[in-house]
TrEMBL record, chain A:
<protein>
    <submittedName>
        <fullName>Grasp-with-spasm system SPASM domain peptide maturase</fullName>
    </submittedName>
</protein>
<dbReference type="InterPro" id="IPR013785">
    <property type="entry name" value="Aldolase_TIM"/>
</dbReference>
<dbReference type="InterPro" id="IPR058240">
    <property type="entry name" value="rSAM_sf"/>
</dbReference>
<dbReference type="InterPro" id="IPR026497">
    <property type="entry name" value="GRASP-with-SPASM"/>
</dbReference>
From TrEMBL, chain B:
<protein>
    <submittedName>
        <fullName>Uncharacterized protein</fullName>
    </submittedName>
</protein>
């Protein structure tokens, strides 16, 4: 190589059982390549003196040049005159938080709501999802909002079932007035639409305060866990986390509709009721934390998948409900054929679907 | 990304800008008073926090995320 070739710092790559993939995390683009070129990318990354000789042994020279041109054309790599100081993306992951996010499910019993919020605050959880499964009346809804406004979170989203008691103006008012509530989702709506709550500032650029998402689908607890290309993550922070941790459950703590503390409300295993057990006790429990460390490399089938660094996970709905290392049930991708199919019509999944009450 | 306009510039108009800035987007300025409302002092963290429109990562997967592709 006359000049030195470097991979762009925003680019990562991964091999799978049938093909490899280059991931441009900035442009959110995937480039599929033969696995032999993954070895070439590893050598480019190493940037040692012998790299080029090793590359030529792996791939014929004209093909190698074509591959370099492809990388440069797509701005996945660039040349420099000297070795330079081009740092590659750091894949280690650290965060100064123990709890990253939480879920509170509420049906008709609100008695544990305040206790749950105070527990979330105590463990410094900044991001929260509140899922309200029953038809609330306006007073109940306003009460829940007034209570949460006494706490300090950074991001809260509220999932609601559509009803006629809470007018849209009220939902808007919440986003306008409660600083950390920026997304409200309303299930069972007539249409799928996303309405931005805009702060209309005349000739100035409009500031979006949040969104109200109207969704036709119904809010069901066993509706969680679907994996598709739309749930892939492109943030480098998330990708780094995925490499060493479980992308959904790491740093998550949840309270189900009966007040039981769980990794996720859809899971059967609970770690005690919030009425008598603190989050601190649960966070010290090895079984609870063990799930945080199940990364895709430990999961059957996913470990062969080229998407494993960007894919999110689900440990509540599994192909084999008795095996915690089993592939997510609601993923229709087969890394052995490189095809996406509708998971819900796969006859091999029927048994697991009936265990989870999905058929 | 509403109201963002793509500016087409010739190379010599870019002056000393680094070459990797070959696409430049511009938009109307925001009203600083309104923008300030997105920032809040947190006594807990002893710092200013910016209002967050999205979670750090997907919290749960109950919705059809294909609807949010443009977001
Ligand atoms: S583990 Fe599955 S069911 Fe639980 S929150 Fe994550 S995606 Fe949803
Ligand atoms: S096989 Fe696993 S890693 Fe691949 S897309 Fe499905 S869930 Fe994600």
């Amino acid at each position: 190589m006359k000049n030195n070739l470097h991979l762009s710092s925003e680019v990562i790559f991964n091999s799978g059982i049938t093909r490899g993939v280059i991931i441009d995390t900035i442009r959110r683009e995937l480039f599929y390549i033969d696995n032999s070129f993954i070895r070439i990318l590893e050598l480019i990354e190493k940037d040692s003196n012998e790299s080029f000789e090793k590359m030529v042994k792996l791939v014929p020279l004209p093909e190698l040049h074509k591959f370099f041109d492809f990388l440069v054309e797509n701005e996945l790599a660039f040349y420099s005159k000297g070795p330079g100081e081009f740092k590659r993306i750091d894949t280690s992951w650290e965060i100064p938080l123990e709890v990253i996010n939480g879920i509170i499910d509420i049906d008709t019993d609100f008695s544990f709501y305040e206790k749950a919020l105070s527990e979330f605050e105590k463990v410094d959880c900044r991001e929260l999802q509140i899922r309200l499964f029953s038809d609330l009346d306006l007073t109940e809804f306003q009460k829940l909002v007034t209570i949460i406004n006494q706490y300090e979170f950074h991001y809260v989203e509220i999932h609601l079932v559509k009803n006629s008691y809470i007018p849209e103006e009220e939902i808007r008012r919440v986003i306008e007035n409660v600083w950390f509530v920026t997304n409200i989702l309303i299930y069972g709506s007539e249409d799928n639409k996303i309405v931005r709550v805009i702060n209309d500032t005349g000739d100035y650029f409009q500031i979006s305060l949040g969104t109200i998402s109207y969704l036709k689908q119904s809010l069901k607890q066993n509706g969680c866990g679907s994996i598709s290309q739309h749930t892939f993550t492109w943030s480098k922070d998330n990708i780094r986390e995925n490499i060493s941790h479980n992308s959904c459950l790491n740093g998550k703590i949840s309270v189900d509709r009966s007040g039981y503390i769980k990794n996720c409300p859809s899971m059967a295993k609970n770690f005690g009721n919030i009425a008598s057990v603190s989050f601190r006790d649960v966070l010290n429990n090895n079984e609870f934390r063990g799930l945080w460390l199940i990364n895709k490399d430990k999961i059957n089938i996913c470990k062969f998948c080229e998407y494993r660094k960007i894919c999110t996970d689900c440990r509540a709905y599994l192909d084999n409900p008795d095996d915690i290392y089993s592939k997510p049930l609601k993923c229709g991708y087969d890394p052995f054929t490189a095809r996406w199919e509708d998971w819900s019509t796969n006859p091999l999944k029927l048994k697991a679907m009936s265990v989870y009450g999905l058929v | 990304m509403e109201k963002l306009t793509l500016e087409e510039k010739k190379l010599d108009e870019l002056g000393m800008l680094p070459i990797n800035h070959s696409r430049i987007y511009s938009n109307l300025v925001t009203d600083i008073n309104e923008e300030n409302k997105l920032i809040r002092y947190s006594s807990k963290y002893n710092t200013d926090l910016l209002r967050s429109g999205k979670p750090r990562k997907i919290i749960s997967k109950t919705i059809n995320y294909s609807l949010f592709d443009e977001e």
